[in-house]
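Changelog-linked ticket: alpha-D-glucopyranose example.
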Amino acid sequence: MNKFGMFIHWGVYSKTGLHEQALARYGLDKTEYEQLYKSFNPTLYNPEDWVLLAKNAGMKYICFTAKHHDGFCMWDTKYTDYKITNTPYKKDVLKMLAEACSKHGILLSLYYSNPDWHNEYAYNEKSTHQWCCTNREKSDVEKYKTYIKNQLTELLSNYGKIYTLFWDIPTNIEDKSMNEHVRSLQPDILINDRGWDKGDFSTPERSVPDGARFERMTEACQSVGEQAWGYRADEDYYSIRFLTSSIDKIMAMGGSYLLNVGPTELGEIPPRSREIIEKVGNWYSRVGETLENHSPSSKHVKLRGGIPFVATEKNGKTYIHLYNGIPSSAIAFESGVDSDIKEAKLVNDGRKLRVRKGLLPGWGNGQGYANGPFVSIADIPVDEYEKEPMIIELTW
Ligand code: GLC
């Protein structure tokens, strides 16, 4: 699976400036909300600009919300009038995005919400994020599944090759025919685990606990802001440090990463979101190669002092991912590393680091209780790199 992608949450909810689920979370009036699309006119929408932002950050794919929980469709579907081509903008924004992606060699993935607050058949008592107040009496899973399949036929036939399908909100109803339908239209597609069966890959969200290598194909997702995935005017943006740490850790554990932005109602990626993608991309352009196509370290590396890290291996070299910073200018190996290191390098800027072997003062009683010998990597520029994860390459 490709390692790095951009998630884009965009829909009529962007007009609220609150949240992609503003209708439910803020208890908005549904009748009024469902008029919003009549003034949705994203005159500043320029999909090439989105695609190039992603591409320049080292991302290989974009995952776009074709339909979120509110049921509004961002493509020209035949199966509802609640869609982008019935706005004053009139154009099929998905088609435009698909063209921009293909022009610049970026893969296109689609997000499709199972909850649908507009479709009268969609209420599913076994799942979450359902519309609370109306439609229950008409709920009809079979009819809703037909609607979904019809829409997927459009999405998976008319927009070129689709890289992954991101179902959202597990239905808790197993139906293998749903993914079979998807695969019959796009045989190479990868499907996530939030649909009607387990699919191909897992999707941990927001923060992922420290841990061992993922056993299953995994794509973690995270937004640039803490409060929402869709556009939020008063968003609480994450720090670059927080995001790059999370990306480094998850990719070193073998996962992929979708980093999300929420464009405004006019179609612009908010300036701070853009800046975050650029800064994360700057770090990724320097270290990204170590995060792709690696295997877990065959050496049982252990660092002294409980420093959090992940060790990986690529082309016979070992990589120590110091994703959460280190307290001093050296790391010492408790085990897994002997004195055979030929060279140690800081991947972030290519500088050589000093490899040292010797006793460290340690702790104890009496005389001559220095510990070791330990192999250490010294002269690490900790202060210079306090804002991004450092990756150290060991050549044997
Ligand atoms: C959560 C949110 C939803 C968002 C999704 C992205 O499920 O509830 O609004 O689209 O995460 O993964």
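Closing comment: Example verified and attached. Residues 271-291 form the longest helix (21 residues). Residues 9, 20-21, 168, 205, 221, 229 surround alpha-D-glucopyranose (CB under 6 Å).
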